[in-house]
Structure to design on (732 residues):
């Protein structure tokens, strides 16, 4: 290898010495800036641990931690869940189905905002709406993608229309994204705190990615520390809580105040992080904001919690929101740049600084300091790599040039020592808050992710500058959404009765299709039995097999009177169930439609005992409710029923023919589309059969009118006449 000319060698040596001399002063400057930021972080750590120790020794030594039993004591108030969705095929449907089938709360409605030019997402939401009566599809006025706030404003208008139609007022509206996995107890927590609190935020914990996915894994580190420590101290010091955009509940008072501030609209459509702005504006308006870490005892109420060594038993059971965050670097940078643009640039542009609250200004500074901290951290990392490279060069090359050390000098050595201690504390704090929820392994992985997060945040900073000056500054941006995944949930998918019958090969395809086209999906089961195309028990058995349930050959008039007394009328009619037996302290309930775990949990709490369901043939439970609770069977009808062969009631053709013509008033209203399922479901939550009749109650709520009620009653009389005729014609 040819040697360099002497003049060039001396020039390179001289340039290297000057560069190292300059790097020394760069290092001093960086150390001073890092010292300021490190002291800032240390101050928050000291406040947190001091407050936590004080509360442990002064409060929780005398008062036990609250658990889920306290949440069950509050009466359920109506709540609305808002889910904006743009191109969320494969995500929003699973989210809505999972929430509607597992949420340990009944008095709520889900409103999914979709766009007129996104038919695939609309179709997915339509399927969920057909299965669950408390899910609503909202179509925005303008085609997408608009801003997320614009979609939410359309959802708010739909909520107002539903309130008017149902004759209710929602106590609060909860904001969620389509990819959220929600704690079954979340709505109970919001219900417990409303209306005293105006903004309620619960923690967000990302699902853990694979160990080597550093870009996605750094979300774990940031959210664990931010929602485990920073926001708690923020609320304690200044009373302001920034919304995370998910898991946020707004009271009616808060929504009304936002409309006043935004000239009649609820959410600012020009903001990329409208949720962050809301927390500031509500606090400045004097409303009460709270961040809640509420732990529960039961594992089955924890939201998809992963078990791992090192977790805190209490902290890992906190009511929170779970979701998958992006793992690809480009997607992570795109999402974080949107956050930086909205929080830092638009936050300063729209909100400025508080004129009266220095504590709030301190936390606003912490929100915005990333513009300095992220580039500084990257430069410091590069400087460390240069120093490591020089050391490695000197160690490996035999005749290497011996450069003067950059870290020479007492000032720099002191600064490096102090910053080293602060960095160790920062690493420990992050490790601890990751460990208590995710366990030892993720806690240890937070160390290498700290270095990689500097790169991610720097790139996001660069894109945020570009985004602000090219789009957000001039208010010419649309929804800069990030594609997410939704975890696979067993049992989340719903299968229609038509599909089950075709798979079981119980009826010819052509016959089933013709009946379906004639009567529609809501009347299909009853019409198949009425027309003799399928026995009632066959329908029950095919649905029971799919759900993993058992069936019951129920004779409605043979239910023991003692069991009728066990089940109050308002519970029996509200859920359309009959108590038919007891087994191992469990009360066995007969039902014609599959009850969700939520409904079973509600019945169990009301009866103060466990319950289990059995599926019965069409009309059997309805006839039993008429006989035992509504007094609807005359003496002649009862005498005729008692004369039939009672040895094999499940195979008695007369009983089957009679029962399929016994629809309840509510069933008729739904089957003939005389009332919207969403309105009827909301009405049944408040209906008490001991206080009024259902028809009168629905008229009082203005859900139906006198003409509609008269038509439904006429249809009911037609069914009863057909029942008697079917009995006469049926073989004995």
């Amino acid at each position: 290898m040819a040697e360099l000319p002497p003049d060039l060698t001396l020039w390179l040596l001289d340039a290297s010495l000057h560069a190292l001399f300059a790097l020394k002063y760069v290092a001093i400057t960086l150390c001073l800036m890092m010292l300021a930021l490190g002291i800032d972080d240390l101050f928050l750590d000291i406040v947190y641990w001091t407050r936590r120790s004080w509360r442990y020794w002064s409060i929780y030594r005398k008062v036990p931690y609250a658990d889920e039993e306290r949440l069950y004591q509050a009466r359920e108030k109506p709540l609305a869940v808002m889910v904006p969705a743009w191109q969320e095929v494969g995500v929003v449907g699973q989210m809505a189905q999972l929430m509607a089938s597992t949420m340990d709360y009944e008095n709520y409605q889900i409103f999914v905002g979709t766009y007129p030019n996104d038919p695939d997402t609309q179709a997915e939401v339509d399927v969920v709406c057909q299965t669950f009566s408390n899910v609503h599809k909202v179509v925005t006025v303008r085609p997408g993608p608009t801003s997320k706030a614009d979609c939410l404003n359309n959802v708010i208008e739909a909520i107002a229309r539903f309130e008017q139609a149902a004759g209710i007022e929602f106590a609060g509206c909860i904001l969620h994204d389509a990819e959220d996995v929600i704690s079954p107890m979340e709505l109970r927590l919001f219900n417990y705190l409303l209306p005293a609190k105006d903004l309620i935020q619960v923690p967000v914990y990302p699902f853990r990615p694979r160990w080597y996915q550093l870009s996605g894994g750094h979300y774990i580190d940031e959210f664990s520390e931010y929602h485990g420590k920073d926001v708690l101290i923020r609320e304690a010091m200044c009373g302001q809580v920034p919304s995370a955009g998910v898991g946020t509940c707004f009271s009616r008072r808060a929504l009304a105040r936002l409309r006043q501030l935004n000239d009649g609209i609820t959410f600012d459509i020009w903001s990329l992080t409208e949720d962050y702005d809301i927390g500031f504006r509500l606090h400045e308006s004097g409303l009460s904001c709270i961040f809640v870490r509420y732990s529960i005892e039961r594992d089955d109420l924890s939201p998809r919690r992963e078990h791992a060594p090192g977790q805190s038993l209490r902290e890992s059971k906190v009511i929170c929101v779970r979701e998958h965050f992006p793992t690809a670097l480009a997607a992570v940078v795109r999402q974080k740049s949107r956050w930086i643009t909205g929080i830092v640039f638009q936050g300063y542009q729209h909100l400025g600084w508080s004129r009266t609250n220095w504590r709030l200004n301190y936390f606003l500074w912490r929100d915005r300091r990333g513009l300095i901290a992220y580039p500084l951290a990257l430069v410091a990392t590069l400087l460390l790599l240069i120093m490591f490279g020089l050391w490695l060069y000197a160690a490996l090359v035999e005749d290497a040039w011996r450069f003067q050390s950059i870290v020479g000098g007492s000032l720099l050595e002191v600064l490096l020592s102090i910053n080293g201690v602060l960095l160790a504390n920062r690493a420990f704090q992050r490790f601890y808050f990751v460990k208590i929820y995710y366990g030892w392994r993720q806690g240890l992985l937070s160390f290498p992710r700290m270095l990689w997060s500097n790169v991610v945040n720097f790139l996001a900073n660069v894109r945020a500058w570009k985004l602000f000056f090219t789009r957000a500054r001039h208010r010419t941006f649309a929804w800069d959404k990030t594609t997410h995944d939704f975890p696979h949930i067993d049992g989340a998918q719903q299968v229609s009765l038509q599909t089950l019958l075709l798979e079981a090969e119980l009826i010819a395809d052509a016959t089933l299709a013709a009946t379906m086209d004639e009567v529609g999906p809501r009347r299909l089961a009853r019409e198949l039995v009425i027309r003799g195309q399928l026995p009632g028990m066959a329908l029950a058995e095919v649905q029971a097999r799919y759900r993993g349930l058992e069936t019951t050959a129920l004779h409605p008039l043979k239910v023991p009177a003692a069991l009728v007394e066990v089940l109050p009328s308002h519970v029996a009619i509200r859920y359309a169930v009959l108590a038919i037996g007891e087994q191992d302290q469990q009360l066995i309930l007969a039902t014609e439609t599959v009850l969700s775990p939520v409904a079973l949990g509600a019945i169990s709490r009301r009866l103060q005992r466990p319950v289990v369901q059995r599926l019965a043939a069409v009309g059997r439970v309805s006839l039993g409710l008429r006989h035992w609770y509504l007094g609807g069977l005359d003496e002649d009808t009862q005498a005729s029923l008692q004369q039939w062969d009672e040895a094999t009631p499940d195979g008695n053709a007369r009983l089957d023919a009679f029962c399929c013509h016994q629809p309840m008033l509510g069933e008729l209203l739904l089957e003939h589309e005389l009332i919207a399922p969403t309105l009827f479901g909301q009405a049944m939550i408040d209906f008490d059969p001991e206080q009024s009749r259902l028809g009168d109650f629905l008229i009082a709520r203005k859900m139906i009118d006198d003409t509609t009620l008269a038509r439904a009653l006429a249809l009911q009389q037609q069914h009863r006449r057909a029942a008697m005729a079917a009995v006469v014609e049926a073989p004995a």
Confidence is low (pLDDT under 50) at residues 647-651. The two ends are 109 Å apart (CA to CA).
